[in-house]
UniProtKB/TrEMBL annotation:
Keywords from the named record: Signal
Keyword Signal found: yes
Residues spanning the signal sequence: 1-24
Domain of life: Bacteria
Protein name as annotated: Lipoprotein
Keyword Signal: yes
Amino acid sequence: MSRWLLRCLLLCCLALLAGCPKSASKGSALDEAQYSYSAAIRWGDFEGAWNLVDPEVRKEHPLTDIDFSRYKQVQISSYRDSGGTTLGNGEVVRDIEIGVINRNTLAERTVRYRERWRYDEPSRSWWLVSGLPDLWGE
């Protein structure tokens, strides 16, 4: 009798596991991507943040070593999410305030930036389509 009960229990567990989602939901995947991106920006890892930019955007607007060296001239003192909006076309926008310190002058200022994220169904990942923030107001 106990062997039969054990088999039934095992089959029930396998059936439950088969019904579990195999990947994160779109919402949690977006949270993970935005957290990784904001952490990279906060720590000054602009090369790492660049890896979360949409590959098509990277191909159309490549950054040079000189571009990356400009980012080394600043230190990020804050990164604040001011709220976001879900667009109907599988995109999400998020308004950000970034505290930026010029390493040469030690002057601090605040830069407003709007992130735009796009969900890519084939890769099941979110990509930043707005590119890295313009910290120089150009």
